[in-house]
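Two proteins follow. First one:
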Amino acid sequence: MSTTRVPSKLGSAGKKLWSAVTNDFELAEHELAQLEEACRVRDTIGVLRRQVDEDGTMILSSQGARLHPGIAEIRAQQLTLARLLATLAVPGLEDDVLPASSGVRGVYSPAGRRR
C-alpha cells in the first residue's frame, strides 16, 4: 500500500518489521517516526542476542560468575519494542510481536477469591 522508503541504516530485522507494517498500512508522519524507532530497537535486540550467544549466558567477573548483562538489556529493549508497537495499534501485529498477557493473578483473580 505504502511507498514509504525504508530508513537508512536499518538491519535486516528492522527492515522486515518496517516492510510488514508499511506494506499493509498507511501511517501518519508521527507514526512513521514511532515505527522507525521500533525498527531500530528490534535491530538492537538482534545485536544483543548475538553477543549473548557468542559470550554465553554466564560471564566471569571479578565477583565470580554472573548473568550476562546483555540479558537484562534485551529484556528492557523488548519492553520498549512492545510499548512502541502498542502505541501504533496496528491490528494483528501485537499477536506476532508482543508477549502474551497472563492476566490477573493472586487474590485479585477470579480463582484466587475466597468465599
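Second one, unrelated to the first:
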Amino acid sequence: MTYKNDPRMLTAKFTSVCSKCGCSIKKGTQIYYWPSDRKAYCLKCGVVPYSQFRSSAADEDAYNGIGPCAY
C-alpha cells in the first residue's frame, strides 16, 4: 500500500541540489524525492534510504496480509 508522503523516484522538474551531498541535480534527471520533508536526493545518495523504506513497507504489507508477498 502506498501513501501520499511515501518517498518515490521521479524526474526532476527543475534544477536543484541534493539534500545530502550538495551536488547539482539537473532538470530531467531521475531523483529520489521525500514529500514529507520536501527533500530531493541524487541517485547515489538516495538509493540506500529508499531501498530501506521500500523493504520495510513490503514487510508491513506482508504482516498485514496485503501485497504480493502476503500468504
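SUMMARY FIELD: The beta strands are 8-11, 16-17, 24-25, 30-34, 39-41. The two ends are 16 Å apart (CA to CA).
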